[in-house]
Write a structure and sequence with these properties.
The chain is built from 3 helices and no strands. By secondary structure, it is mainly α. It has a domain of 34 residues. The protein starts with a helix and ends with a helix.
Length: 113
């Protein structure tokens, strides 16, 4: 009877070892997945930060260009001779637009309209 009891205990121990090995294998697989996800997350975070830096730099440039455009627009609006010249040019193009068949007028029209 002791021999049967000993073999039964040995069987339970071996079964427990197999279960521990299975759990260990599953844990190792989960650990690999977690490490891959962590690596991917780090890559995504780095790319996100790189894109944000590019966007911030672009925004600075856009703000700088906007300021220059506003300054140029104010300068143009404050200079009456430029405003009159601009108005005269627009009137001229309005007249030229209707000169159908005139090759030079059509080329100008294509360039500006």
């Amino acid at each position: 009877m002791e021999w049967v009891d000993y073999n039964y205990e040995a069987y339970l121990s071996l079964k427990q070892i197999d279960e521990i090995e299975d759990t260990k294998g599953a844990f190792q697989e989960s650990d690999k997945k977690y490490k891959r996800l962590l690596d991917n997350s780090k890559y995504i975070e780095d790319e996100h930060n790189r894109i944000l830096a590019i966007l911030e730099e672009s925004l600075k440039k856009i703000n700088s260009y906007e300021k220059l455009i506003l300054e140029a627009q104010q300068e143009k609006n404050s200079n009456r001779s430029l405003s009159k010249f601009d108005s005269d040019i627009n009137k001229l193009f309005e007249k030229v637009r209707y000169f159908e068949g005139n090759q030079i007028a059509e080329e100008i029209d294509q360039q500006y309209y």
